[in-house]
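hey can u check if this looks right to u? its 90 residues, i copy pasted from the old doc so theres a chance i mangled smth
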Amino acid sequence: MLAIREMCIEVTWCRRISVAEIRLQEGESLENALRRFKRKVQSEDIIREVKRHSYYLKPGERRRAKQALARKRARKKIRKEGSAKDSRRE
């Protein structure tokens, strides 16, 4: 049985984050296995975790970024509600 083992990401402090592993099924093409692997990596949020640990944010900077995301979500929610009201009027 052949196993594709990639995406073993090591961060600067030499701590292993996560390993996504899939096993090739009988008669499965490499393209399909790679597609399944990419999906698994995306669903496990490996990339997001590595990006989050790639640099340090001071607590104040982290708070400001969190507030900025909250403002962005609120604007998006207002915009969606406004477009839903417009479609009901017609």
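The longest strand covers residues 3-6.
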